[in-house]
Amino acid sequence: MAFHRSLFSHPWLPHVLAVCGFVFAVFLIARLFADKKQPGNTVAWLLVMVLIPYVGVPLYLVFGGRKLRRLMARKSRLVLVHGGLDAVRVPPSVSPVINTASALGASPPVGGNALRLITTGEEAFALMAEHIRLARHSIHITTFILGRDETGRRLVELLAERARAGVKVRLLLDAVGCVFSSRGFVAPLRRAGGEVQRFMPVLSFVPRSSANLRNHRKIAVFDRRTAIVGGHNLADEYMGPLYNKKRWSDFGAVIAGPAAVLLNEVFLADWAFASGRPLDVLHGEEAGAGVAEGVAGVECVEGESALQVVASGPDTRGDPLYEGLIAMIQDARESIYIITPYFIPDEVLWRSLMVKARAGVKVVLVLPERSNHPITDYARRFYTRELRGAGARVMHYGAGMLHSKAVIVDERAGLIGSANFDLRSLLVNFEIGVFVYTRADVRKMGAWVATLLASSTELKGERPQRFPFFSGLLEDLCRLLAPLL
Fold first, then answer.
1. pTM
2. Which residues share a beta bridge with 397?
């Protein structure tokens, strides 16, 4: 005991610790720059590690690193292939978007789909429940949040019922978003024969773990023929059987046809990684159970929607969703509508919107008046102020929290999916997007946007601040730290 006291009281110990700390800091900074982050992200991490090292260094070790090479080497590269599906010819006017996403591994557009938009939480729950009941072979669902509430409980019960009936039920939960509902809460489903996996547990000795890389994808695929995709999580805030005035406004779509096959491939790739089972074994199980009935199994759908499924994240080559979005914006000729709960663009996206607005393109940004993350509201003020100065319109949705994510350009192309308009969604998380290239579908998306605008007010100027100096300081600080969110 005396030896330990003398060791820790030795005069050279603080110097040794200081040298070790310096070497460790240099190592972390070198790793930070090697990650090739966006400049704002890099600066934010540097400031946190330098100003509050006892907080910043542990946070970076847990959350830092955009694409952890060793970790993602264990997850096979996600490349969507048609597998017998025929690509569809689309108007040349959308070819820049298609070519950009396809060059980074996204599947070319497929036709023969039927697309139905989901614009209310009640409709989302009803359609989810209906397709769970109608499934005969398989139900594959991945979600960022499964609420420990009535909606989550009811959906777990429905899934357990189908599992008992012999349907292959797989539920993939993000370990962070579902931290309170990924164990005992889903026990009824496991007891019924369903399978549940957690995506990248944080506090785990399993090598597939990281707090930074989250699966933000929301995908539900039924019998490989029909899929639900969008922004809805499985919780009361997003959906439910009855109207709830506190429910968030969200957006998604039901897709029947070949695009559902591709969405199922995204799910299986994530499931293979989370479960540790080879992807070819999962494909064999589907074929043996009669799930993968080939393209003929989805040809019975008579639809005219041309859709391009684009997955994005550390398991893709480059950033196909991000670059596809840039291609959409830069190719706009008449109008750009962006609907998002959080607006923290990088320099390229922000400048692209500024140039389009100054060039006379109608740029309309629809945001919640107040989101559920006040820090992002402060962080967005600089960007919205500059955009308004360039001629863009900024609309504040006032009928509650707006969680919808969509982009519409010129009635030629639309984007539905899980990604927010911020750096974490577009450049860090695992996300899913569906580009819509059929004018009739894009017009339907435009009609939905019109209902949002009817409940929105245009931001004409900044509200007077009681303490403008501190308000401006807070805005700058939030914008600086926003890339870490």
1. 0.83
2. 368, 456
